[in-house]
Amino acid sequence: MTPKPTAYLFIxxxxxxxxxxxxxxxxxxxxxxAGLFQQIEQQFDLKEIRFYDAIKDRTKEPKGYAGQQRFHxxxxxxxxxxxxxxxxxxxxVSLTEEQxxxxxxxxxxxxxxxxxxxxxxxxxxxxxFTKEKGIDILLVVDAIEIARSTPPGFVIxxxxxxxxxxxVQFIRKQGVKTLNLHTYRGSATELRNACNYHALIDxxxxxxxxxxxxxxxxxxx
Length: 221
What we know:
- The protein is an alpha/beta fold.
- The chain has 8 helices and 8 strands; from the N terminus they run E-H-H-E-H-E-H-H-E-H-E-H-E-H-E-E.
- It is 43% helix and 26% strand.
- The protein has an 8-stranded mixed beta sheet, with helices on both faces.
- The radius of gyration is 20 Å and the shape is elongated.
């Protein structure tokens, strides 16, 4: 049997989450990720999976924080190769219902409309503006470090963000091959073209991921 090429998988968690939501209007749960990893391991000897995520503030979003921590723990329990790398999520603007109601009252809006305004802002996701700081840099530094210190056959990047192009170009100069895994939506052509290979993550009717390898198999480097 031909040995599989070694690889490290780097996941831009936020980018993949938003692209998945745009594609299937749902997020990928623990079982979905586990199934995706199994498909990757059919082609590669996957040494480690690094998952990059911005951690929510437990005081501002207690339920969101708890859910995020639960997801991390369950995924690590299910997939022993997963290692989470994180930075705090930055909150730029955060509105409360009380603030919205007070401002509506100041503007002379009648009582029965105040709750409607709050509900509309929530549906439009305008209540809280957040920004990830340092996650993409952390991913790039880790990927370059792996490529230079323990050269794998492949660095696999699960993201659609073109900001990673310079890092991909540098990694390729180290003699390491690159593979971009991406969804149909949110995938930058520039990033796909910068990598040696790319593969589409599609979804079946049950919203489970299926990898389209385009009939390709990968030989050891």
